[in-house]
Design brief:
By secondary structure, the protein is of the alpha/beta class. It is built from 12 helices and 9 strands. Helix 2 links the parallel strand 2 and strand 3. Its EC number is 1.6.5.2.
Amino acid sequence: MIVITAATGQLGRLVVDGLLAQLPADQIAVAVREPAKAADLAAKGIEVRHGDYTDPDSLKAAFQGADKVLLISSSEVGQRLSQHKNAIEAAQAAGVDHLVYTSLLHADTSTLNLAPEHLGTEELLATSGLTTTILRNGWYTENHEQPIKQAVESGVIIGSAGEGRLHNASRKDYAAAAVAVLTGTGHEGKVYELAGDTGWTLAELAAEVGKVSGREVRYDDLTPEAHQETLVGFGVPAEVAELYVGWDQGIKTGQLVEIGGDLSKLIGRPATPLAEVVAEILA
């Protein structure tokens, strides 16, 4: 039995779809905070279990009988480490054979403000006694969906990343990597650095949006201070704007560059090109 946490999220649903293409539904279960949101998965024959990262007892019950668990990282920045600790302890109590965790690219060296909680989780896993696989996911190209759509109207993508390159991949690529690990062999104890095959800058993203949309789109590179001020002026809460600016500074210093090719090797094909994802977003 494979149990997928956070399976009603965007990544989780793609993983479940990938598993269903290879396994009978009765070999898959999902652990979700709100089971009612997984009614469509239940209709496909998947067992839906209540599993809330803030409720250790629910996780222990959700992981019973699991050979493998995919722990998809919590979306609650600042709460992740304690929530992941609950999940790891629940996996220990349930006797899970193999836990797969979705971490962050270069979590052990990254200066991105998201890295500490992921690295802390990896450290908990290292001392847990569990058999693990770490999927260090890079940036999703879909993270840029809102700026891409807005750029078609405004003709501008703003940022403060300079000429920093992003080796992004699509959400479906990362889901396919998780499926490959969950259904394959020889992944125990491995740490995979997952990223797209070809890097690009935000200026190149703007050019691609222009090509797909048929209108001129430029990238305006701002200072971090001006970037923060502009975002707040657009109505973005100051603390959220600070996160965005921090991510761009990470891009500027190469935190999202990875040329090892782990992702394409795992999924057996090239990562989805930028042009294809932009076209899907604008379709």
